[in-house]
Structure formats: C-alpha cells, structure tokens
Amino acid sequence: MNLHEPKEIILRAIEAFNRRVLVVSSDFQILAIRGQAEDVQESDVIGQKCYKILYCRNSPCDACPTLEVGRKRQPTLSPGYHPTSYRGQVPCLYSYPILNGDQIEAFVVLDFDFPALDALEEKLQRTNAFLSNLIHSAVDCVIAADNNGKILIFNDSAAELFGYSVKEALNSLNIRDLYPDDNARQVMRKLRNQEYGGKGKLKTYHTDVLAKNGERIPISLYASIIYENNREVATIGFFHDLRDRLQISAELEKTQLQLLQSEKMASLGKLAAGVAHQINNPLGGITLYAKLALEEYELEEGVREDLGRILKDAERCRDTVKELLEFTRQTRHLMRPHDINEVISRTLFLLENQSLFQNIEIEKRFGDSLPAVQADIQQLNHLFMNIILNAAQAMDGKGKLTIETLKVSAKEQIGIEISDTGPGIAEKDIPRIFEPFYTTKEEGKGTGLGLSLAYGIVENHGGLITVHNRSDGGAAFNIVLPIANGEKKGDHGAEN
Ligand SMILES: Nc1ncnc2c1ncn2[C@@H]1O[C@H](COP(=O)(O)OP(=O)(O)OP(=O)(O)O)[C@@H](O)[C@H]1O
Ligand SMILES: [Mg+2]
User: Fold this and answer.
1) Which residue among 77, 167, 199, 340 sits deepest, i.e. has the most Cβ atoms within 10 Å of its Cβ?
2) Which three-class secondary structure string do you get for 49-99?
3) Which CATH architecture has domain 334-496?
C-alpha cells in the first residue's frame, strides 16, 4: 500500500479507529460498515436494515441518530451503547449526513467512547453529591414536589419536623398531606401570583403545616416554582419552624406587660409613699398636742372625750400610713414565707375605707393556722388588689365579697377563693379574661391588664388561677399557691 496516497491514508485511519463506522441509506439499509462484531460477515449485512442486524429490532430505534440528522440536516451527538465501554466512559454516536447538493444521500454513524466526558462526569457526580449533602444537612426543611404533588426531595430536617421518615415521604406522601385544610392550594395560588415575591416565587409566607401526629406547626415558607421551557415542572420550598420564635415573642410580650404594670404600680407606690410621708409629720403634731392637752387636769369631761377621739382617729391614720408604706415598699421579687391571711387582711385594710367599698359587706372565712406560702409580698399585694377591686367594680359598690382561705387537703397548697355577688362573667368572656388588654369596661375605665398581671404573678409563684360563675350568679376566682418549703412537714394541723 502506498501510504503517500491520501485516500489510502484515510482508509487506514478508518481501520485504525477500531470502532464501528456505519453508513446507512435514508431507509436504514446498511451501505457500508467497518468494525462490526467479528462473527458477522460484511457481505451478510450489506443491504440489510441496520436496526434488524445490529439491534435485533423490527423497526428503527427510538433514539435513532439518523432520524435526528434527517430532521435537522446537521451532525448530532447522541448517547450510544457499547458493551466494551469501561466504567466512567460515555459511549456516544456521532452522526452526520453525506449530502449531494440539497439531497441527503446517506448517513454516517460513528460509534465511540468519549473519554473526555469521564472527568466531567466525575465532576458532575461530585457536584451532585455535594448539592444533595447540602440539601440534606440544611437546618431548614427542604421539600420539592412534582406537578402532581409527588415528593421528590425531603431532607432530614423535614423528616424531623413532620415526623415522617424520608423513605415514607418519598414513597407514599403527597405534598398536600403536609398542609392542613386547603393551605397547599393557597400556597400554589400565591406562588403563581405576582404579588408575593414575583411570579413563581413566594417569600416569608407564614402558614401552618401538618405533622404526622396531627400537630399544626407554624412555619415561615420560601418557595418557588421550577420551570422547564416555561412549563411548571416542580415546586421547591424551604420551611422554617416558627414555634421557638413565637414562644419567645409571646414571653417577651408578657414580660413587657408585666413591666408596664409594675411600672404603673411602682409610680403609684411612689406617689402613695410621698403622700404618706407628708401626712406623717402633721399627724405626729396632732398626736403630740392631743396627748399634751389630755395631760391638763382641769378638762371638762366632754372635751376629754373629744380629745380621746382625736387621738384614736390620729392613731388610725398612722396605722393606715404605716400600711401604705409597707404596701408600697420598693422591694423586688423577694421570695419569703408569708401568712396568706395577713397578706389579704392588709390589702383589705387599704381598700375597705374607700368609698367604692362603703356598701360592700366583706366576709372573711380564713382557715386557722395555715402554713405559710413562699411569695413576693409586693406581687401578692398586687394580685389580691386587682381581684378584689374587680369584684367591687363588678358589684358596682353594692353586694357581698367573700374571701376564703384553706389548706388544700392532701396537697402542699393553700387555696384562696374570692367571690362576689355581682353579675358574673359572660360564658363567652371566660376563656379570654386573663388575656392582656381584654376588658369589657368602657374606654378609659379599664386597661384590661389587671387579670393578666394576676395570672402572671400566680404562674411565677408556681400556682394556678381559675374562674367560674357561682350558682347564684356572682364570679368566683380560685387561686392555689404552693406552701413554703420549710412549712411542708410543720404541724400547723387544721386542714379545712
Ligand atoms: N369579679 C368579676 N365579675 C365580673 N366580671 C369580671 C370580674 N373580674 C373581672 N371581670 C371581667 O374581666 C375583665 C378583665 O379584667 P381585668 O382586671 O383584666 O381588666 P379591667 O378590670 O377591665 O381593667 P383594669 O384592671 O386594667 O382596670 C373585666 O373587664 C371584666 O369584664
Ligand atoms: Mg381590673
């Protein structure tokens, strides 16, 4: 062979290619073949249909590259099959037309492995593994679903939040099962709407999802629709559990309210303490001069009686001032054992002389020798003040207030019931009256903070406060407070 002949060189080059080179007509007849399987004679295959001889089929292959070349009139690269391709290499078919002017005379199909793709494939695999790792170890839940709602991605955080295993979710769940009511449809509607972050996007949308155990969980959702050629093919969502955040903000709100209320009480206390000090001085003068006058020998009996009355009233004033100063003492959260009967008596002492209480009969049914409760005295004062004031306001200054204290049998608790003969609380209001700012009073008359503060105080002391309407119509508030530690095994006896 003359290797200087270019045609010879081309032929040798084709031989050396060592993979199949096939030339077929537009009706799939083999016109020429090189590098076919060894047990097939070239003469046996020429003129035969390629799909029959090479792939044992009765019709052209589904992904036949020559069809594509015929359609596009351009070379194409398509996936191939080769039994000797080794792992990591990608078998390919490269096809191109042999043109005669505008006419396609035949198709050439080169069969080869594409080793250059090997590295790419490995890189792709590594990238895919990295992405899958990223999704699965994300702190937020990542869930993707196809157009029918079938779950395609369900990461570990999603499994933890919803309580389904990843396998269970991928095999038998529909995205709609993860939402209560028709929330899934609403999410889709918003996703397709421009207004919630652009078409196909939804940003920081707060809604509820449904866990396997039926629990509704508040979440914040970032979601988007995945499009392929402008067609919706899937959706992907990032779900952030809001339970912790909501709990923290509820606690913050509660603390702020308590702060507000205690600020209110503190400034009232300062005012009262200032007034008390102002009264103390002239009161000292009145007492002193009344005593001096009484020491005069020649006093008429009537005058002596009058002076005695002045002294008695001045002493009452002094007691009130003392109580007021005690009540407003600016101590904060000092937990000490206290006799509950004394605490309530002190609050009543301050209230009962006010005009609102003039026509209210007060019955104290105090248990004897009750064990002390561990409490902050100032907070207890606020607690009883709020409840007793509410009762007096509800009775509009006329009726009976009953306060009962007792040791709860078999429990290390003190029970206190404060009941009135007012109109009671409408059934519909009962679940709401401990809520902050809930008031039925007209604007300016009540802030609705009294009972929410009372609830917070009882809770802080490890107790419980409940309310019910009595059979005769009035309201009754029941409070239980734990007994102080050192008192539990004491021999205070009298259990009521
Ligand atoms: N003893 C009671 N009888 C009937 N209703 C009551 C009684 N105690 C409380 N309520 C109802 O509960 C609501 C909430 O009470 P709360 O003490 O929290 O607020 P308020 O008394 O309205 O306002 P504030 O205490 O801030 O002045 C009241 O508005 C009232 O409707
Ligand atoms: Mg009130």
Assistant:
1) 340
2) EHHHHHHCCCCCCCCCHHHHHHHHCCCEEEECCCCCCCCCCEEEEEEEEEE
3) 2-Layer Sandwich (3.30)
Which strands sit side by side in the sheet containing 103-114, from one edge to the other?
Answer: 30-34, 21-24, 103-114, 90-100, 76-79
Q: What's the Cα-to-Cα distance from 390 to each of 73, 170, 222, 357, 419, rounded to whole Å?
A: 92, 58, 47, 12, 11
For domain 245-330, which architecture applies? Answer: Orthogonal Bundle (1.10)
With a 6 A CB cut-off, is 425 part of the ligand 1 pocket?
yes
Task: Point out the ligand nearest to the CA of residue 265.
Answer: 1
* Residue 387 CA, closest ligand 1 atom number: 8
Beta bridge partners of 399: 360
Ligand 1 pocket member 440 (CB < 6 A): yes
Pocket of ligand 1 contains residue 433 by CB under 6 Å? yes
pTM over the 0.70 mark: no
Q: Which residues contact 75 (CB under 8 A, 6 or more apart)?
A: 69, 94, 95, 96, 97
Q: Cα(405)–Cα(366) distance, rounded to whole angstroms?
A: 5
Q: Which two tokens stand for residue 4?
A: 């200087």
Task: Collect all residues with Cβ–Cβ distance below 8 Å to 73 and sequence separation of at least 6.
Answer: 97, 104
Q: Does ligand 1 have an atom closer than 6 angstroms to the CB of 80? A: no
Do 6-114 and 137-241 share a fold? Answer: yes
Q: What is the pLDDT of residue 27?
A: 92
Nearest protein Cα to ligand 1, atom 25: 450
pLDDT in tens, 36-88: 555 667 778 889 998 888 888 898 888 788 888 988 888 988 877 655 544 55
Any atom of ligand 1 within 6 Å of the Cβ of 261 = no
